[in-house]
Design brief:
385 residues, 4-stranded mixed β-sheet
């Protein structure tokens, strides 16, 4: 479950008490496959403007300060991405031509020295436990109760939420949370009001849902550099909208993922006491000053040999990492996160994508782009209007 504040630990305990009191345990629930104990207390922000452009598809651009741009991995540099959000936001921005941050080598070297990914030096493993549900106007609205001790104004307090019949939360096949072993995120896209509902540690309670931090995102909005507000948490430790950065099997089957992907590192491998925009919060990072901070955007180098990967599906994910990169969003052991295929037409197995499909990709195969000024972590949320 990661490193929580005292109040947030109390909230988790209260939620567990509610679950027990309601008798909501389910012996038939699927085993939890969480991201290794993620810390889920985010806030928001959007990426800095492009720091440079490439003058050619086949060569890097070198500026007077020695920074280099990355050749595009497909499409014109600066292509707008797509996904759940209809408005442009940081995670939808093509960074294939952005300049490499001056600190890039220092950061990737420090990550290598810290042991690499949480699953090993080059074991770039994939987590398939998160589920994004898609509701419509016929989806019933059910009561929602937020567990005590979850902070406001960080969290929103909806009284009802759309609940897709026969849906599921993270790591389960239904809405019953194995709260002792799973973050149990409930992620629901609700087009009738252009709202994305994201709830941490959700579980069934009677006809409704009880959960921790609930956050509502407007998918028609371009959020500012600090998203919902500096120091503000969400259902994600860095304050991002999680669903916007989770590819699904249907996207990969189409041959193109047009947005950044979220990733996690163990808290001792994340820079302590700070974050960078577009993150607006951090969980419990405890690493040294040269390690990557929450909110860092890392891009797979254009020189990485995609033919080493075992399938077209794996190459599609890698191309997205070259073009849109990945944002450090959470604390956990399994680095890269995609959606479960419980409700998609295509299945990961049919795409020859499994948890080991990106093995062999090391931190040294990435570079840091658009690293902004660090923000000291205070946890004192100031929401944007």
């Amino acid at each position: 479950m990661g490193n929580f504040s005292t109040a947030q630990r109390a909230g988790a305990a209260a939620l567990l008490a509610l679950v027990v009191a309601c008798g909501s345990s389910d012996d038939n629930a699927a085993p939890a496959t969480n991201d290794g104990g993620s810390t889920t207390h985010p806030g928001d922000g959007s990426a800095p403007p492009d720091s440079g452009t490439n003058t050619g598809r086949d060569a890097t651009t070198t500026t007077p300060d020695g920074n280099t741009g990355n050749p595009d991995s497909g499409g014109a540099c600066g292509d707008a991405g797509s996904g759940i959000f209809s408005a442009p936001n940081a995670w939808m921005r093509d960074v294939s031509c952005d300049l490499v941050a001056p600190e890039s080598q220092t950061i990737t070297d420090a990550l290598v020295a810290a042991g690499g990914w949480g699953t090993g030096a080059t074991s770039f493993q994939i987590d398939f436990s998160l589920v994004v549900l898609h509701a419509d106007a016929t989806t019933p609205m059910v009561p929602f109760v937020q567990a005590p001790s979850y902070p406001t104004p960080d969290c929103d307090t909806p009284t009802t939420i759309p609940l897709v019949p026969s849906g599921a939360i993270e790591g389960q096949t239904n809405y019953t949370c194995d709260v002792a072993n799973n973050d149990c995120h409930l992620l629901v896209d609700y087009p009738p009001t252009h709202t994305l509902y994201e709830i941490y540690q959700a579980t069934s309670q009677g006809a409704g849902i009880v959960g921790g931090c609930a956050v509502l995102w407007d998918v028609t909005k371009t959020y500012p550099d600090n998203l919902r507000g500096d120091q503000c948490t969400s259902a994600d430790a860095a304050g991002f909208p999680m669903s916007a950065m989770l590819p699904d099997a249907d996207e990969v089957a189409s041959g193109s993922v047009n947005h950044a992907i979220r990733f996690a590192l163990p808290n001792p491998s994340i820079r302590s006491s700070v974050y960078v925009h577009p993150a607006s919060h951090a969980g419990g990072p405890s690493g040294g000053a040269n390690l990557p901070p929450y909110g860092v955007r890392m891009r797979l180098k254009s020189s990485f040999d995609l033919t080493k990967l075992p399938s077209d599906g794996a190459r599609t994910l890698a191309k997205a990492l070259q073009k849109y990169g990945m944002f450090l969003s959470d604390g956990g052991n399994v680095p890269l996160m995609v959606q479960a295929d419980l409700f998609t037409q295509n299945k990961w197995a049919s795409l020859n994508v499994d948890s080991h499909s990106l093995y062999g990709i090391a931190p040294s195969d990435f570079e840091v782009v658009a690293l902004g000024t660090t923000v000291a972590l205070t946890y004192n949320c100031v929401r944007n209007p």
